[in-house]
Design brief:
CATH architecture: Roll
CATH superfamily: ApbE-like domains
Helix content: 25-40%
Distance between the termini: 27 Å
Shape: globular
Order of helices and strands: EEEHHHHEEEEEEHEHEHEEE
Largest sheet: 9 strands, antiparallel
Number of strands: 14
Protein name: UPF0280 family protein
Number of domains: 1
Number of helices: 7
Oligomer: single chain
Organism: Sedimentitalea arenosa
Length: 283
Amino acid sequence: MDPQVSLLPDRRRLHMHHGPIDLIVQVEGSEREAGLRRGVARFRTILAELADELPLLRSPVAEGRALHGPVARAMQRAAVAHSPAFVTPMAAVAGAVADAILQAICDGDGLDRVHVNNGGDIAFQLAPGTRLVAAIAGIDGARITIPAESPVRGIATSGWRGRSQSLGIADSVTVLARNAAAADVAATLIANAVDLPGHPAIRRIPAVELFDDSDLGARPVTVSVGRLTQGEVDEALRHGIHAARRCMARGLIEAAFLGLAGKTRSLGAAPFTALSQKEPIDA
């Protein structure tokens, strides 16, 4: 299927779809049309670039193989930053694609606010005096408010209920970082850490039984989570917070928000703000 690009009914957002890539893009500013044209042009080439290096992108970063495309290299950099943890560049794919489209759009003047949402992983740019309000996945009514002066330019969410496979049991882990690729990998690994290994209420199967091309191979991924005690939920979240602290100590993330069975934990100075559900969501 060829790349599909269409303006959404609100006339403000653009939908870009090609294979597994599904983007919602919004651009504000006097040079909006020029920015969108650059974004569409970049979008039309990006899937083919990734497909050319897919076998290496599915290999653990510890194997140290060189990648060539700019998005593939960005994925590798984001994953290598977490060494020696097991991770493949594919952990960064959604965020890195969002970053690349954002970069193309912003390669010019006259833009006030841009955000690229790739299935919930968001890359964005803010002009002085602007802000971004985004929902926290899985937490009713919760919002993240990010002002232009914040260093955060990427948001990603992971968990066992989402579209990605997870080794852990987090309902959701939302991470803020300096770009979306970095947030994407960190959210994946922190979500993996929210876990109770060997617990009988947790059902797992080899990743390849769900998707035969999974980069996780035979590693057991979570497919259902049964009833947990409050103490068990606290324990699992504690493991996740420890992983988030390690990421923060290495300068890989700015903040994290973890949710499991109705309980939440947060880490970092970013403005996680519980706003009214009437507050407009930008991305």
